[in-house]
Write a structure and sequence with these properties.
alpha+beta; Arc Repressor Mutant, subunit A; 2 domains; 5-stranded mixed sheet; two-stranded antiparallel sheet; 17 helices; 52% helix
């Protein structure tokens, strides 16, 4: 399944944009980089591409010269991650990566403290933050946990299976997005924020080289925002089958269940265990495909709707408005 068939909740772009304004980054420069109008940015249900969020981050990093986005007590200079990554790629194991990262950031990131703690057969990668930091720190915690799950996984060439994720704040209204961020159950209102995984993974050797890292650094942060491949999750496999099948045939529950060698009832139950329904997966894929297609001005809105299985433009418009809060035409006009 192509990562192009994936979008990000506008919540993330809007909140990072608002934070950029707070720390003095030019609003026009940010909107132009993200390719989004003020009207589209204000739509709470709108969705945007990972590329748009990545371009916004680049502007904030460069203009603010702070990789921690002005959310802790003093800046962490732009380029710090690249320097650290050059050191980490020389490590022997995943455990050495986390230990070296902790030492570095605990020296330079004032207001936030990282810890690795073993608890029986599990290990916790923990983030503590100073009590004087305000609610914006939750946005940074999401981002840091994302990076320090995905980048170490890239270094070892494998996705680190998470047992669960702990978050030291109340469940937000956009918590459904966490299903795309972390391949595990997220537990809110915990004592601290942490990634929890089996301790034996710390012995895993690194497989990436400095040459691989050069290419990787040229693409950050885009690869952190793109949809990851989690084939162990049934919801991922169902979405992949739907994307491969197209919308004319093979997109009903019975057909998909048959391809997975189970009944529709079993498929429905197992998806519910992952906190999602078949219809939600189907609607989410259609929504993401339509958003990406609307960026192509060579396609009429009717043609976009037909490509995702809607024969009638009016039906597509109603569905798109239900998914995003705005019509396809308003969405297209809001793209820069």
């Amino acid at each position: 399944m192509s990562t192009k068939n994936f979008t990000i909740a506008n919540f993330y772009l809007r909140k990072h944009y608002e934070n950029g304004v707070r720390i003095g980054v030019d609003p026009t420069l940010m909107r132009e980089a993200a390719g989004v109008s003020p009207e589209l940015l204000a739509q709470p249900l709108a969705r945007l591409s990972p590329e748009q969020l990545a371009r916004l981050f680049h502007v904030i990093w460069e203009q603010a010269d702070d990789e921690f986005l002005g959310m802790i007590l003093r800046p962490v200079r732009y380029g710090s991650f690249a320097w650290l990554a050059e050191q980490l790629v020389r490590c022997g194991t995943l455990g050495e990566v986390y230990e070296a990262m902790l030492r570095f950031y605990n020296l330079v990131a004032e207001g936030i403290h990282f810890e690795i703690r073993r608890e029986g057969e599990q290990v916790k990668f923990i983030l503590h933050n100073a009590p004087e930091l305000d609610g914006r720190i939750n946005l940074l915690i999401d981002f840091l946990l994302l990076i320090w799950h995905r980048f170490p996984g890239w270094l070892i060439g494998r996705t680190i299976p998470l047992h669960h994720v702990e978050l030291a704040f109340a469940e937000p209204w956009h918590s459904a997005e966490y299903r795309f961020v972390f391949p595990a159950t997220c537990c809110f209102e915990q004592r601290h924020s942490a990634l929890v995984f089996d301790a034996h993974w710390l012995k895993t050797p690194l497989v990436r080289t400095r040459e691989n890292l050069t290419e990787y650094l040229q693409r950050i942060p885009l690869q952190w925002f793109q949809k990851q491949h989690y084939p162990r999750l049934l919801s991922y496999r169902v979405t992949q089958l739907l994307a491969d099948a197209g919308w004319d045939v093979g997109s009903d529950m019975d057909t998909v269940a048959g391809k997975l060698n189970m009944t529709a009832r079993t498929l429905r139950r197992k998806l519910a265990d992952e906190g999602v329904s078949f219809q939600q997966l189907k609607d989410g894929l259609r929504r993401d495909q339509s958003i990406n297609l609307l960026g192509d001005n060579g396609l009429t809105i009717a043609a976009v709707g037909q490509q995702i299985g809607f024969e009638e433009p009016a039906a597509f418009s109603r569905a798109f408005r239900k998914w995003t809060g705005i019509t396809p035409l308003v969405y297209r006009r809001g793209l820069g």
